[in-house]
Amino acid sequence: MRHKTNFLSQSDICAIYKCLDGHIHLKYRTLDLTMDPEEFYQVAQVFSDALHTLRKVEEPIDDKIDLKDLDIYLKV
User: Fold this and answer.
1) Partners of 31 in the β-ladder
2) How many CB atoms lie within 10 A of CB 17?
3) Tens digit of pLDDT per residue, the chain (76 long)?
C-alpha cells in the first residue's frame, strides 16, 4: 500500500483518508481498515444509523406540539 494522500476527515483519535490506490481507510488509534468506496458507504450508513439511535435514546423526542411556540399568522 502506498502512503495516504487525501484526508477526508480527522480528529485526535481517528481519521478517514483515501490512498493513491483509491481505497478509503478508516483509522482508529492503531487500527487501519481498508475499504473500497461501496464498502465505505455501507459502513458510513451504519455509523449514521447508530448516531441517530443514540440521539433518540439520549434526547427523547416529544411528539407533542405546543401551539404557543409556533409563529402563526391569522388571515381574516
Assistant:
1) 28
2) 18
3) 455 568 999 999 999 999 999 999 999 999 999 999 999 999 999 999 999 998 887 766 666 666 666 665 655 5
